[in-house]
Give the backbone structure.
Amino acid sequence: MELIKVLVVDDSAVIRSIVKESLSQTAGIEVVGEAEDPFVARDLIKQLNPDVLTLDVEMPKMDGITFLKNLMRLRPMPVVMLSTLTTKGADITLQALELGAVDFIAKPSVQELLATQASFQDVLVEKIQEAFSVDQRNFKLVDLVAKNKNDPTLSTSSFKGIKRANHLIAIGASTGGTDAIKRVLTQLPKNSPPIVIAQHIPKAFSLRFAERLNNNCSLEVKEANHGQKIKEGHVYIAPGDKHLEIVSKNGALFTTLTDGPEVNRHKPSVDVLFDSLINFADNVQAVLLTGMGQDGAQSMLRLKEHGANTIIQDKYSSLIWGMPGRAFDLRAHTVEAPLDMIPNILLNYAQLSKSEMKEKLNEH
């Protein structure tokens, strides 16, 4: 097993100590250094050449976002943010993900951390290993950063309208998904088919995520509430602590939020969302974007078997090709495509009549 070298950047000596202790107990991970501020971190990166960086979002002398911008410009590398579960923390973390951070982990208070160190350790180790895997499969991190920074605003695709009532797009994503979802939604016009989304994200972040998307899209994006009627041109994002399901009543579709157990270790779960669409799968497009794990893969296969158009993000454009890769292995997809091609695939399919749609699916 290749050794993962980690640099821990946090202004709290206690947090640094807990993070170091948590990681040092795991075979294959070595904490090669600690930094109390970004200036010390900058020097240690040059000296130690770490593989992964953990970074506090709120730092002295230079804030975490400014440091991350400089890092991604000068020495792109996988970064896992330590984020407070607050509105301010959510905004900073979502901005960090847009700038190229691989993932984040909730940062409890010192007292909470001391009480829950074992569970914190498990999540932290998993995040570090995920971040390291980005480089291991030759993902061009620098290309992602350049794309996010230098691309002009993506143009909204032209769309003549939906040809079938209650046509629905369902999207599932995890690691890297917040940026991938943004890139898809910003290319869609305001008369797009309705979209429902299960993104693995904490409760404290899902509302801010929806609000940030709403400010950048032609579509109306909102965090889903229980019992909403699904409308054209609207996007409904599952709250970070609820499963989102869709039900059909009296010729219309409605959201349902449930508080059941985690599925595939997640709530919201993509499998729960996708499985709720089985009864009207022939009028559904299901999309799996970047993310670690296998959530959504089995249910995507079931949707395909019931007539849905199923789309996975390709390996090169995925930050982590876990969920779409698992769907690929199961042959659960009808289409595999780069991220920036997915919006037009969705719109072109939505414009097909029912007979044209069936003919298209029979080609696969």
The first helix runs from residue 13 to 24. The chain has two domains: 4-148, 168-362. The domain at 4-148 is CATH 3.40.50.2300 (Rossmann fold).
